[in-house]
Amino acid sequence: MSSKIYLLIIFIGAIMVLGIGVLTVEAATCSGSGCNGLNPNSTGCDATAIRLYSTTSNGAFIELRKSTECSTFWARTTNVSGINKYANATLKYYYYTASSAPIGNGEKVYSAQRYSADGAGMYACGMVSNSPINSMVYSPCVP
Amino acid sequence: MKNKNYTKTAYLSLIGLLVIALVGVGLLLSGAVFAKPNGDEAAPASPFLKEDANTQSGPAAYTAEAGGVWMQLSDLKVSSAQLSFKLCYEVPFESDWAADRMALIAGERELRDQYATMLLEGMTQVEGRSVQCTLNRFQLPAGISFADARIVIERIATSAPEQPDCEAAQQKLLQSGVPIRFTCQHGEYSFGFEVLEKPAEMSELEARSVVSDAFHDVITGPWVFEVSMEQ
């Protein structure tokens, strides 16, 4: 009788370990400055993303995004101009992503992420344009 | 007797483990994401709101209700270059709700795109209600008068994820009776979509707007605040 109970306890324990293992896979795959320069989506940091700051400027909706789990920040630009345009999302002084072709209304590009404990010095800049924008953008920005 | 106690303890341990395992598997199946609480986090220090010697403050607070959501506008301040205010919303669930479309109408002038928002993280209590708040600012053109002014919040929305769940968004449209079909393009640092089918009377831009809204939660107002001030 007792050996059966032991087997059951081991079996349930194994299920719990397996479950925790799967949950760990679903959590972010980086932490702290180890997230610097990495993709917020492929690292899982975007699972807890919030829009900390946002503004609209000349057909670009610009956001400073934050992962509450990873404490990382990145820029995202959405084309809201109504027509297809090239787009750029820049996390000022750190990373940028530029679309290689015009993107449609409502489509987005986002930068790599950067760790910051308090978000100081994190600025999201971006724009949309009829021409490619293959460099960092320094205006307009939020905050 | 000793063996009986041993068996009882083993059974209790077994039941305890079973409950923990079921809770764990349940959370896993529900797709729960474990994030550290953020209610006590302060927003990053920023020069988001600027004041100068000419800054004037408005009345304590205004309230409005629309779309089933109570909203309060407070901390209204006008300087020579900026109008700023705090908005608090009694939202159905905690997320990063913010004004999605808003306008400042001052006399004949209407400002739409010259605003920025800053999320104040976490939920807080205002007038006994659990609310989420943002700071907001409009950049002001020279010579604008607030003798006859109002702020119109047309809608509030959460932000869309980096890579939205397209299947869920498609189902949301179908369940709402919107006959639009679309496909998504998931890039490494980008997200796009293409409208495959739409009603003939709907423009491509309108259809894209409907699809965009399916990727996040939107509550439509409007919430209107009369904010006339003597300057």
Describe this structure in words.
The complex is a heterodimer of chains A (143) and B (231). Chain A is an alpha+beta fold and 143 residues long. Chain A has one domain (32-142). In chain A, 17% of the residues lie in helices and 34% in strands. Chain A contains one helix and nine strands; from the N terminus they run αβββββββββ. Chain A is elongated, with a radius of gyration of 21 Å. The model of chain A is unreliable at 20-25 (pLDDT under 50). With 231 residues, chain B is of the alpha+beta class. Chain B has two domains: 56-159 and 219-226, Immunoglobulin-like, CATH 2.60.40; 166-215, no CATH class. Chain B has helices spanning 2-29, 166-175, 204-214; strands at residues 56-57, 61-66, 69-78, 82-89, 98-106, 109-111, 115-126, 129-139, 149-157, 181-186, 190-197, 218-226. In chain B, strand 5 (98-106) and strand 6 form a beta hairpin. Chain B starts with a helix and ends in a 5-residue tail after the last strand. Residues 24-46 of chain B have low confidence and may be disordered. Classes of the chains: A alpha+beta (143), B alpha+beta (231).
Secondary structure layout plus pairing:
The complex is a heterodimer of chains A (143) and B (231).
Chain A: H1 2-26, E1 49-57, E2 60-67, E3 72-79, E4 86-91, E5 95-98, E6 108-110, E7 114-115, E8 124-129, E9 141-142
Chain B: H1 2-29, E1 56-57, E2 61-66, E3 69-78, E4 82-89, E5 98-106, E6 109-111, E7 115-126, E8 129-139, E9 149-157, H2 166-175, E10 181-186, E11 190-197, H3 204-214, E12 218-226
Antiparallel strand pairs in B: 1-3, 2-3, 3-4, 4-8, 5-6, 5-9, 7-8, 9-12, 10-11
Would you kindly provide a brief summary of this structure?
The complex is a heterodimer of chains A (143) and B (231). By secondary structure, chain A is an alpha+beta fold.
Features:
heterodimer; A: 143 residues; 5-stranded antiparallel β-sheet; 4-stranded antiparallel β-sheet; 9 strands; elongated; B: 231 residues; alpha+beta; Immunoglobulin-like; 2 domains
